[in-house]
Specification:
Strand content of chain B: 5-15%
Oligomer: heterodimer
Largest sheet of chain A: 8 strands, antiparallel, barrel
Distance between the termini of chain A: 51 Å
Helix content of chain A: 10-25%
Strand order of the largest sheet of chain A: 1-2-3-4-5-6-7-8
Number of strands of chain B: 18
Distance between the termini of chain B: 31 Å
Shape of chain B: globular
Number of helices of chain B: 16
Radius of gyration of chain A: 21 Å
Radius of gyration of chain B: 23 Å
Structural class of chain B: alpha/beta
Largest sheet of chain B: 8 strands, mixed
Structural class of chain A: alpha+beta
Strand order of the largest sheet of chain B: 13-12-14-1-15-16-6-17
């Protein structure tokens, strides 16, 4: 093998290796552990609650505090994408699934009512029909490794 | 005394006590004790049940009254046959395309008849059943837990009727959906049963003025308002439920098509309980929604006999934010795509100011009539014309903490003030109130309490006083107890939840039938109460469905299309069809006359006289504006 071919081979190996490393970085799950102030646009207005998330690899669990009760909290993170599920119990059990993206100390996206996108506004007459948007803001420097 | 009886009586005593407290608190000085004023008729109790969104022709379009009675409907006019097919006068229901590309017009030009109306679509009607996001539900036990307001045999309808179709596509359950002709069509068929969810047509204020297409140029002696009711689909497909200030999409599809032109066929088996009630008791075929528009404005007119004004929340008039003021003028380059209107957009108008968008079209029409109709718009006043959340949530705190789309609290007088002043007990029974009080944002999908339907939820004097709230706003669970115990308030206003209110898309008419049947059955099981009670069953508005009846303009706000009214009592038996002109405020007039109450304010609609009419046309008042007090629906002489 000529020296130039050897050089090209090593360059090719370098490029591939760096590409693989970059891909791995992109797929690394964001760290969303911590205390978040969650809000979403419900049928008649903006609902609020506090979520404390624990994260093991890509799996999420935690607690929720708010007027609606104490639901089971679960979810997962893949890269910057987050799915958070709140399962409320009681006389009228229901679940909300929040899909969105993480950017530092902020998450946002759309939610649905257990997978049915037309959940709240089939009546179509409420002032401020829900747009299924949600946001969460992490309390700074708390609960983070 | 049983515990329920004791609790019920305690609640009524609390109601009277709270009323006295409120009077004292509001006046700031001691007042004499108010003795409960006696009713002038045998009717000691009035129950008003308000469903959602059906016109008279939509429900009773093919109703055949008993011998000796007449009715004005699709069948009697020859618009349809008893089997729902087009009749010899089908063209009376023909609908038109139009052009409005300049300023907003209520009777635009360049009209051309549809050969076939645009295909009705599915809009947001539910595709499939779901326990997590009902209705319909999957599991009966869960449905019964969530919805306690039905006569038991109707519970099964909570599980059925999903469309099986995507949203916003032609409703292919309707036979020949693309070639329905130019006018009204029967909604039900072998492929779309009565127990099915379907789309909901637009029914906002400025849209409905256009749908009804009123002009002095088309006025006749039998139709002096000149309303033609012929632009329903055109409004649906050109603007629908509004723009919210956004530009038109590249391809506009409101999801409705010509949903507005559908009717049920009671002669073919639809609405069997409402048909039975009409055959047994008294209905009106000339009763109207009081505002051209939707749920909120019509419930407000029912409670206040007036529209309510935007204020600073402390009794002084104010100007709403710019993006909450109506502008129905078409956006440049569009045909009727409003500039600013919608459930999160324009909803107020200052109708005293002819420079305000949309206002001159209505006011100039009213002034052109013979005799002219006074708009009844006060200076510098922005009236709420469409749905915005009320000023308060269930615990008496401000709704503005949850949404910016709430009208500030109002100090305007309402019928509750009149009743309290006379010591007459009253309660608004809103189904789901108890759940709503802990869930003011409606985050729980089972929470289908209607906040915009409760006229007292807008009122400072009720909502800021815990005793007043508790006395005058309760869940329907309390109503059912009262019916058993006989401790019903003098006036009960009853609102079903969103599951059972009959609203298309989110509910079904059979569910509202089941809601009414439960109450009527319970009432009749208590002979003492039944002997002294009248039940008024009606709707908040026609929901944007076509109706062929006469519309009398009363002021800037309405009237709108006919809606059903059934009056159930021992004094309204016999299957009578009454033709006197009325609207929601007629029920207020009945209450006021029955208990000797004055009109709510000097400008409220309950000041209007009872109508006078000629024998050959009982539908058109000759002393307009006039609305009936409904006493002529009762026969007190034979009981």
């Amino acid at each position: 093998m000529k020296p130039s071919r050897i050089l090209y081979f090593f360059l090719w190996v370098l490029v591939v290796a760096s590409s693989i490393a970059a891909t791995a970085d992109e797929k690394a799950s964001a760290n969303v552990a911590g205390k978040w102030e969650l809000s979403w646009e419900a049928r008649l207005g903006t609902e609020h609650g506090t979520v404390r998330l624990e994260q093991i690899d890509s799996k999420l669990s935690g607690t929720y505090e708010g007027r609606l009760g104490s639901p089971k909290v679960s979810g997962n993170v893949a890269g910057q994408n987050v799915i958070l599920k709140l399962e409320f119990q009681g006389a009228h059990p229901f679940a909300l699934v929040f899909n969105g993206n993480v950017a530092g100390d902020r998450m946002q996206g759309k939610f649905d009512v257990q997978g049915v996108a037309a959940g709240y506004d089939s009546h179509g007459e409420n002032a401020h029909p829900t747009d299924y948007s949600w946001t969460a803001v992490r309390e700074p420097n708390r609960g983070r490794p | 005394m049983s515990l329920p009886t004791f609790l019920a009586q305690a609640r009524q005593h609390a109601a009277v006590g709270a009323s006295l407290f409120a009077i004292i608190a509001n006046l700031g000085a001691p007042v004499p004790a108010v003795a409960q004023r006696a009713a002038v008729t045998p009717i000691q109790h009035v129950i008003v049940i308000i469903g959602e969104n059906r016109t008279f022709d939509h429900v009773y379009g093919t109703f055949k009254p008993k011998s000796g009675q007449t009715v004005a409907n699709l069948l009697s006019k020859g618009i349809v046959n008893a089997d729902g097919t087009p009749g010899i006068n089908y063209e009376l229901s023909a609908q038109y395309n139009a052009v409005d590309s300049g300023l907003y017009e209520i009777s635009p030009g360049s009209k051309a008849a549809y050969w076939n109306i645009p295909a009705p679509e599915t809009a947001g009607a539910p595709t499939a059943a779901s326990d997590s996001d009902p209705a319909p539900f999957v599991t009966l036990s869960l449905a019964e837990l969530a919805e306690p307001g039905l006569f038991p045999s109707y519970n099964k309808y909570l599980l059925t009727g999903a469309t099986g179709l995507p949203h916003d596509v032609p409703d292919t359950r309707i036979p020949d959906v693309e070639t329905l002709g130019s006018g009204t069509f029967q909604l039900t068929s072998a492929t779309l049963p009565y127990d099915a969810y379907a789309a909901s047509p637009v029914h906002r204020f400025y849209q409905m003025w256009q749908q009804t297409d009123c002009s002095v140029d088309t006025a006749t002696s039998s139709n002096p308002s000149g309303c033609l009711n012929d632009l329903f689909p055109w409004v649906e497909v050109t603007i629908g439920a509004g723009s919210n200030g956004n530009p038109p999409p590249s391809r506009l599809n409101t999801g409705e098509g010509s949903t507005s032109m559908a009717f049920f066929n009671v002669t073919a088996g639809d609405a069997p309980y409402f048909k039975q009630l009409a055959q047994q008791y008294t209905i009106s075929d000339n009763f109207h929604q009081s505002v051209e528009g939707g749920t909120g404005a019509n419930h407000i007119m029912f409670g206040y006999a007036d529209a309510i004004a935007y204020s600073n929340g402390k009794g002084s008039l104010a100007t709403p934010p710019v993006n909450e003021i109506e502008n129905p003028n078409p956006q440049a380059g569009t045909n009727n795509y409003y500039d600013q209107d919608g459930y999160s957009g324009g909803s107020y108008s200052n109708c005293h100011d002819l420079s305000q968008p949309g206002v001159p079209a209505v006011v100039n029409y009213l002034q052109s009539l013979n005799p002219p109709i006074e708009p009844n718009c006060a200076p510098d006043t922005y009236y709420l014309l469409n749905n915005y959340n009320p000023g308060f949530v269930g615990d008496g705190s401000l709704d503005s903490q949850y949404t910016k789309f709430a009208i500030p609290p109002t100090a305007q007088k309402h019928i509750g003030d009149s009743l309290s002043a006379a010591g007459v007990s009253y309660t608004y029974f809103g189904e789901g109130w108890d759940l709503y009080t802990s869930d003011p944002t409606g985050a729980n999908p089972y929470d289908r309490y209607c906040n915009i339907c409760n006229p007292f939820q807008y009122a400072t004097d009720i909502m800021t006083n815990p005793a007043e709230r508790e006395a005058h706003i309760q869940d329907t669970r309390s109503l059912y107890e009262d019916l058993v115990d006989g401790n019903l308030p003098a006036v009960s206003i009853v609102k079903p939840s969103g599951f059972t209110d009959g609203h298309p898309s989110s509910s079904k008419l059979d569910l509202f039938e089941g809601f009414v049947k439960k109450i009527v059955t319970q009432l009749q099981a208590n002979p003492t109460l039944w002997a002294s009670t009248a039940v008024f069953v009606t709707f908040d508005e026609g929901g944007g469905y076509y109706d062929s009846g006469y519309i009398q303009p009363l002021d800037f706000f309405g009237d709108g299309t006919r809606i059903p009214l059934v009056v159930i009592s021992p004094f309204t038996t016999g299957g009578v069809v009454n033709h006197s002109y009325g609207d929601h405020v007629s029920i207020i007039k009945f209450i006021e006359r029955n208990w000797g109450l004055p009109p709510i304010t000097k400008r409220s609609r309950d000041n209007y006289p009872n109508p006078k009419a000629t024998a050959d046309n009982p539908y058109v008042p000759t002393n307009s504006p006039a609305i009936d007090d409904l006493f002529d629906l009762f026969n007190f002489g034979t009981k």
